[in-house]
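Hi, here's the filled form for the chain we discussed.

Project: internal
Contact: R.S.
Residues: 113
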Amino acid sequence: MSRRTGINALRGLSVAVLCAATLAACTPADQDRLTRDAARAAITPVLVDRFPGVPVAPAVDCIVDNANSRELLSLAADSITGPTANTVELVTNIVSRPDTLNCLLANGLPALL
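And the returned structure, exactly as it came back:
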């Protein structure tokens, strides 16, 4: 492992430990909000990359609102390391759900469909 890779891995681990400690000190409502905010941070670059010029904030809300807790935690973890192929797959799966599609249509975002 190169020195640079080791430093980046150490930084990632440090951020993960800090996030875990922060979440442990929060109320359940705060934990949920922080998880959702972190998930939004992972979803946004995926949508910006796939749909340039489309307002993504309402779409991100639809995706977060229709993700289950396991998916939100996975997306939140991806916000630390950056989006991966797994992030794109997860976002695509959530977008394909009927409730998410209805949310996107209700928010005037047919370009994402």
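Let me know if anything looks off before we file it.
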